Amino acid sequence: MAGLQLKRLNLGYNGDVVVHQVDLTLGAGELGCLLGPSGCGKSTLLRSIAGFTQVLSGEIWLGDERIADASTSVPAQDRGVGLVFQDVALFPHLCVFDNIRFGIESWSRAEQRLRVDNLLALVGLSGLGARFPHELSGGQQQRVALARALAPRPRVLLLDEPFSGLDSELRARLANEVRGILKADGVTALMVTHDQKEAFDFADRVAVMRDGIIEQFDAAYRLYHEPRTEFVARFVGAGDVLPCTVVNTTQVDSPLGVLTSDQTLGYEPGQEMSLLFRPDDLIHDDDAEQHATLVSKQFRGSHFVYRVRFDNGVELGCLAPSHHDHELGADVGVRLEVEHLVLLPK
Amino acid sequence: MALTPHRRFNAVTLVALAAGVLVCLPIATIVTLGLVGQSDVWGHLVDTLLAQYLMNSLGLVIGVAAGVLLLGVPSAALVSLTDFPGRRALSLALLLPLAFPAYILAYTYTGLLDAAGPVARWVDPRTLDSIRSLPGAALMLSLVLYPYVYLLARASFLSRSASTLEVGRTLGLTPLQATIKLALPMARPAIVAGLTLALMETLADYGTVAFFGVPTFTTGIMRAYYGLGDAVAAAQLALTLLAFVALLVLLEKYSRRKLRYFSGASRRSHSRVRLHGWRAGLAMSVCALPPLLGFAVPGCALLWWGMVDARDQWWDLGPMAASSFGLASMAALLLVMSALALGYAERTAPSRLTRGLTQIAGLGYALPGTIIAVGVLIPLAKADQWLFVMFRDYVGVNVGLLFTGSVAAVLVAYGARFTAVSLGAITSGLGRIKPSLDEAAMLLGHRPLQIVRRVHVPLMRGAVLTSALVVFVDVLKELPATLILRPFDFNTLAVRAYELASDERLLDAAPASLMIVAVGLIPVIYLNRSVSEAKY
Amino acid sequence: MLKSLVAASLTLALGAQAAGQVNVYSARKQALILPLLEQYSQETGVEVRLITGGADELVTRIKSEGVASPADVFVTVDAGRAQRAKSANILSKLGQADFLDRVPAQYQDADNQWVALSLRARTVFYAKDRFDPSQISSYADLADPKFKGQLCIRSSSNIYNQSLTAAQIAHQGEAGALAWAEGIVANMARKPTGGDTDQIKAVAAGLCDIAVANTYYYGRLAGSDKAEDRAIAEAVGMIWPDQQGVGTHVNASLAGIPVNAPNREHAEDLIAFLLSDQAQTFYAEINHEFPVVKGALPSKTMQDLGEFSADDLPLDTLGVNNPAAVKLMDKAGWL
Lengths: 346, 536, 335
What we know:
- The complex is a heterotrimer.
- Chain A starts with a strand and ends with a strand.
- Chain A is of the alpha+beta class.
- In chain A, helix 3 (109-122) packs across helix 4 and helix 5 (168-185) packs parallel to helix 6 (196-202).
- In chain A, the strands form 4 sheets. In chain A, strands 7-8-9-3-10-11 form a 6-stranded mixed β-sheet, sandwiched between helices. Chain A has a 5-stranded antiparallel β-sheet with strand order 14-13-12-15-21.
- The longest helix of chain A has 18 residues, at 168-185.
- Helix content of chain A is 23%, strand content 37%.
- Chain A has helices at 42-50, 96-101, 109-122, 138-150, 168-185, 196-202, 220-225, 230-235; strands spanning 2-13, 16-27, 31-35, 55-62, 65-68, 72-73, 81-84, 156-160, 189-193, 205-210, 213-218, 240-246, 251-254, 257-260, 272-277, 282-284, 290-299, 303-309, 315-321, 331-336, 342-345.
- Chain B folds into 2 domains: 1-32 and 311-374 and 406-506, Orthogonal Bundle (MetI-like fold), CATH 1.10.3720; 39-260 and 275-309, MetI-like (MetI-like fold), CATH 1.10.3720.
- In chain B, 76% of the residues lie in helices and 1% in strands.
- Chain B is built from 23 helices and 3 strands.
- Chain B has a two-stranded parallel ribbon with strand order 2-3.
- The longest helix of chain B has 33 residues, at 277-309.
- Chain C has 2 domains: 6-119 and 251-304, D-Maltodextrin-Binding Protein, domain 2; 120-249 and 310-332, Periplasmic binding protein-like II (D-Maltodextrin-Binding Protein, domain 2, 3-Layer(aba) Sandwich).
- Chain C contains 12 helices and 9 strands.
- In chain C, strands 1, 2, 3, 4, 5, 6, 7, 8 and 9 form a 9-stranded mixed β-sheet that branches.
- The relative contact order of chain C is 0.19.
- Chains B and C meet through helix 2, helix 6, helix 10, helix 11 and helix 15 of B and helix 1, strand 2, helix 3, helix 6 and helix 8 of C.
């Protein structure tokens, strides 16, 4: 049974439609993510699931229950949906313990205490229950917000750019931690973010959104290696696009010569296409036959990302081992390591 | 869990609409009266005194603006950003003149400075007589109105983030420069809001300017009504005043638009700059002068007159103090509730209708109470007559007047007059509660009313209290609407003080005046606490 | 909340219509009328209920309340406002009531809608030590250019000055009255401020040599407990203007019965009481006003000022001329 299902959903304000015909299904216990640039409609989508935005048309289902369509909706407070806010939104006048307890006040005292203590342990804040929000660091506040949202055991947990206020290192660590916490609790969750790294750290599957449309909903690996549109390709990871012509079922003709894929391409010979090169499709190797000029380089610790220019003017990203620190302008050997070709419609 | 149809209206909106319509009723009446009626007074006014009225009003507005800024802003900055001996006491004392009605201050200073008064022994009466002039009126009004600016500016200085000033310091500014270049611009919306309130009160004032013989635009309104018996002309003049004030309010809105950037900053408490030597002395003087002139001196004069010259005027003040107190409390309660309804309607279901009503109601603060009272009287009496005839003809019962001459009518007038005040504090209080807090509470299963109780009430305590207390003090001082709309044999302290003072029995008016100030002091002291203790 | 308020006012309003009651709408200040009303109440057992306020507001209120108005007696403190009440059609005819016989005809409305209760005179005060009172014998003299910069008089917003000007219009026509008002403005020692008492005090303090004020303000200073006040009264002298001409300008407080008065009998009864010798003495004693009833005596302080002849201009003329007077003062630049 699906945990969350959106069917042909249209959303908008004052006559403007900002989310178009969205279909999306999250399995029970699955962690999903809506990834896209700001203004793509991902937050609107999230708020419609929470019950803060009315549905223009289409349906929202939680489990086997329809919670909203064009004419009716279940009030937000009755949906059993948890939300972790971008601005944390802890109640400033309540201590940590009371904040977490806020949604389970109908439970017995003992159950409340047990649940809050367990959650505090889960988010690694045991012993801080008596603190007030302003006495906590940003990361701690976000963890309390998570615990508060989890306390009533929501049927789905929504996270609205929950880590955007934190520094990048903490952001990555927390995304991973939260994933662990949610998996341990078996929670179905949907997060919104514009940070690809955060999305990959957190989610089982990521939906890339653009202009109110989901362009692709897939596991991180497939988004990276098999993007369906140029937008997805560029938004998920670095890469360059070169024009090419299909030669036959496995080969294309590109500015770097004829390249061969290990999979069938599925396009007619003679078709003009775009070919996606990831930096890891081109490896620096001093012994390689092909050479190019080093234009720029970025040191990433475990490796370098080079930018190289071929004689015919084509520039591509290229990975280099960490100890290969060549001078800019040097002539360096490069080797194409393309196994499957990613072709995108022009 | 049930599917329910989308709702476009909620209960709060309905209450807000009802409150909005009620408080706008008087202004709507005046507008109708002015637009429908015919009057030839305009031509006469343009030919004779209009220019002078306008010049005087403009002069008064400029004078009071300068006065309240000079008295209110430096003192607010000093007590919130620096430390010096006596700071705590002075920060409270600076609020006290709020309890003084402007006309009583004017009467008191006249009594002190007239030829038979105590000062005339040492100073030439001709010099003293110059208090009764436009600058004198501006001074009187400034002395009682600066606390609005002080109150809001101080709250703003106290709540702004500590880091901003520290950034300024690291960029090479002295504390004084940092205050002028950073803290002042950040407090600007608050200062402008206070200034707007003070100027609206100034434009509505009739008692002070009439007594000092400074004919202003409001004098013109009252003169059309009293002197010429022409209510239509008075309404038309009032409309003109409203248009001017609407402009003023738009200006204020424009300046407050930016307030959003400033609020919600961290409330880390900042360190005060400690002042020593002559600097401390100067700070003390700057902060002591306004309450000295606006409270201590006139207060002592009243006390002296009340104890020595008017000992026979005390005995029947008890019941009047009780009605004043009851009326002010009831008005504070109702106005805060209606302001909450209007504020919540705007927050939960924003509509052009409620917003429009709110803005119109806010203008009432600039209208003279008499005009508001006439605006209340006409529609309520119409309703009364209709009911009277209905009951007489169909039921055979004489119900008399149900609304006019009842406390309800007085309260409607207060609503029309003071909504600007009650709404100001509530809106800024609600504005400080991020919408995500509501949503978080809602998703945790709480109904709207529970959210209000559990989240808003604790967070809004300060704002609600401020709103209620300012209304309380304003109602306590209010005269013209109370005078004309009150029920039989219903006397308030303000009515008593006014009747004696306007009968040129200044000394006899002292006990009632003193009681107004005393009853008003209690909320003012609370007000001080609620501002300085705001935690979140 | 609103419900209980309505219920409360319902009971209040229903009570208002009970028998044995009379409702007074008074522009006369509470302190200057309540003692009399209480006395009436004690003597007759009729409950008197009072609201005070500006005359114009009270007229507006009575007019707005219409048929439902509980007002039984309307008391105002000048003829101008009585006239306004008449033109608002809120006053009824008093009929052939006995009490009317006690009051001279010029102090009654020609249309039988109101009757005066007490009189006040507007006179001239001068500095005893530096001003020769023989220079002034009339209001017209006040406008004489030789007194430039010597005159203290209050604002034209004040009803006393409005009705004085209205009387000038009646006697010398609009053009003459305008010239007179312009002369007054030209002679002012300062911009008009403060009340009548302040004008008298200004003379005593040397700010000006002559001032215009009602007699009772002088009476209060002269009868005050405070030595400073008595010293001021001591320093000024008083002139009865126009004794050789039309007589000193007087105005009155007056009473009428609104058309919809629910307790008309009590209202007539109360007015008769207010015109009784006993009540007439009260006005004289408490406020140094002049009784309107033939035979009643003014206060000792007022008697000391001597006999005077009053302008016998019908008081309703003052009311009719009042708007013209205001506009004329505006034209003259009388602030």
